[in-house]
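Incident log, support desk, overnight shift.

02:14 A customer reports that sequence design results differ from what the structure should imply. Their input is reproduced verbatim below. On-call engineer (initials T.W.) acknowledged and began investigating.
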């Protein structure tokens, strides 16, 4: 019997998740059922959306239940295949990996990877969900025009670093908001034209005004909270705010998001505020992946990774990502 240390949800977090909310259990390796693959996990992805699933509250995706195996995106090698779509030895990516060294995934949710095209873990970052989200949130929802200013929060994170580079490639003016001077400098190195360290900036509204002297045309909001309010006060007429994530609220997830109500500003600017979910663009994934892969292979797209080692590190990697302590795409390598 193969040992398979497995993370389960012990209790629903109150506020910011803590290591005590999870339990590491030594379980046997699962057995693949009809249409399933048994996979040896190589990489796990921890992402902000997982926080929303750790709650009994109704959400756009099914929530995690107490005692269930923690799940998220992953990359692994097929050990056993009960599907004609895959064979042992294939490297696949899927979004229903358990937090465990051996896991089962539904074959119809898996995608075969070509290790020669790009490092396989990029399918969890710049060529995967974060990259696709950056692509569609910016281009299909934000609709920037050449020369417009695009302000992006969590700009050095998995999604933000890709959105800024797409903006550079397309001829927009990307401006970064990040949580340290080192992160701001990284953003500048990949094409952001200006940057703000929100932890030391003081008056955020004034800081954004200095970094965006011609105002903000599109705000890609990956955080919510005070950054959202400050960006709104700098929004140009007919500006667009794309609400992609609310990670700044991770420590008060089940509480109302209370802040200033700048309705007059929305009225005067005729601003548009729109929520973003990646699944709405599933019919166009292939086109976006072609563009992202081409840019990556041409050297136009860089992706910084923050890698934690070992299955034991998964909860802490998840928590530090929620706190903004990661630098780049947060991964767990098994």
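02:41 Re-run completed on a clean worker. Output:
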């Amino acid at each position: 019997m193969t040992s398979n240390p497995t993370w389960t949800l012990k209790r629903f977090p109150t506020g910011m998740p803590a290591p005590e909310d999870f339990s590491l259990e030594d379980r046997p390796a699962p057995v693949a059922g009809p249409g399933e693959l048994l996979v040896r996990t190589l990489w796990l992805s921890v992402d902000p959306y997982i926080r929303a699933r750790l709650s009994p509250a109704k959400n756009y995706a099914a929530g995690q239940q107490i005692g269930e195996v923690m799940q998220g995106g992953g990359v692994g090698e097929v050990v056993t295949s009960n599907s004609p779509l895959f064979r042992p030895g294939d490297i696949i990516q899927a979004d229903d990996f358990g937090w465990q060294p051996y896991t089962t995934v539904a074959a119809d949710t898996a995608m075969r990877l070509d290790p020669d095209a790009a490092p396989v873990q990029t399918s969890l970052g710049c060529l995967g969900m974060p990259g696709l989200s950056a692509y569609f949130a910016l281009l299909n929802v934000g609709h920037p025009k050449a020369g417009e200013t695009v302000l992006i929060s969590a700009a050095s994170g998995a999604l933000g670093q890709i959105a800024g580079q797409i903006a550079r490639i397309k001829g927009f003016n990307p401006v970064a908001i990040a949580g340290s001077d080192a992160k701001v400098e990284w953003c500048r190195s990949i094409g952001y034209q200006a940057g703000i360290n929100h932890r030391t900036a003081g008056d955020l509204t004034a800081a954004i005004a200095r970094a965006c002297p011609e105002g903000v045309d599109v705000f890609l909001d990956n955080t919510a909270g005070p950054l959202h309010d400050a960006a709104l006060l700098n929004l140009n007429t007919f500006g667009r705010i794309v609400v992609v994530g609310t990670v700044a609220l991770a420590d008060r997830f089940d509480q109302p998001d209370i802040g200033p109500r700048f309705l007059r500003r929305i009225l005067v600017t005729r601003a548009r505020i729109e929520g973003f979910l990646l699944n709405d663009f599933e019919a166009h994934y292939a086109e976006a992946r072609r563009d992202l892969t081409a840019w990556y292979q041409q050297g136009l797209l860089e992706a910084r990774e923050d890698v934690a080692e070992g299955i034991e590190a998964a909860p802490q990697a998840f928590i530090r990502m929620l706190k903004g302590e990661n630098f780049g795409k947060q991964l767990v390598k098994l």
